[in-house]
Amino acid sequence: MRWTRWTAIALSLGSAVTAAVVMSCATQQNKPAAMTQEQKVARGEHLVTVSGCGDCHTPGTLFGSPDMQRKLSGSELGWTGPWGTTYARNLTPDNETGIGKWSEDDIVKAFRVGQRPDGSPLLPPMPWEDFAAFSDEDAYAITAYLKSIPPVQHKVPDRLAPGVKAPVALVFPAPPAWDAPRTPPPGATDTTAAH
């Protein structure tokens, strides 16, 4: 009876090893091939488009006529709320006014963690929390696309502190009780609605 038990154990172990090898091979065969740079850029363009980045960052879009010659070069239409007034930044690879000096890791950190390379926070209405869930592959595809577009020199206005009136801005009204934040947005010094 001992030889039967040892034979059963040996067959079980052999079956387990064979199954592991087969599953390992199947897993390796199902992995997609790494994207070429061209595929990465195309994937990034798709993600930037469907994520609505151009809605705020391309001039004219919020007025029904996006200027694709200045695609993603930022806007001078401010967004005013308890955080002050912020402007959609230039996302083109211009070294002086855009993100040309940012590394790929800097860009990914910005939309995953909500922090610029200098440590300052990305303020509303930038929905970085929604983009934090991008996979590494998608996040770096977005950076490849942003680095590939033509640089446009355009410095958007600097952030205005709460209470400072912006020349042109969409103003967020004070929220009703149900929607009122329980904590102020990052970087906000005043939790009341802007004037």
The low-confidence runs, each spanning 5 or more residues with pLDDT under 50, are 190-195
Number of strands: 3
Provide the succession of SSEs. Answer: HHHEEHHHE
The largest β sheet comes out as: 3 strands, mixed
Strand order of the largest sheet: 2-1-3
- The residue-averaged pLDDT reads 85
Q: How many separate domains?
A: 1
Instruction: Please state the structural category.
Output: mainly alpha
Question: Your description of this structure?
Answer:
The chain has one domain (37-179). 38% of the residues lie in helices and 6% in strands. Helix 2 (37-50) crosses helix 6 (136-148) and helix 4 (104-113) packs across helix 6 (136-148). The protein is globular. The chain contains 6 helices and 3 strands. The protein is mainly alpha-helical.
Outline the secondary-structure elements.
Blueprint: H1 2-30, H2 37-50, H3 53-57, E1 78-81, E2 84-87, H4 104-113, H5 128-131, H6 136-148, E3 169-171
Helix pairs in contact: 2-6, 4-6
Search tags:
195 residues, mainly alpha, three-stranded mixed β-sheet, 6 helices, 3 strands, globular
In short:
The chain is mainly α and 195 residues long. Helix content is 38%, strand content 6%.
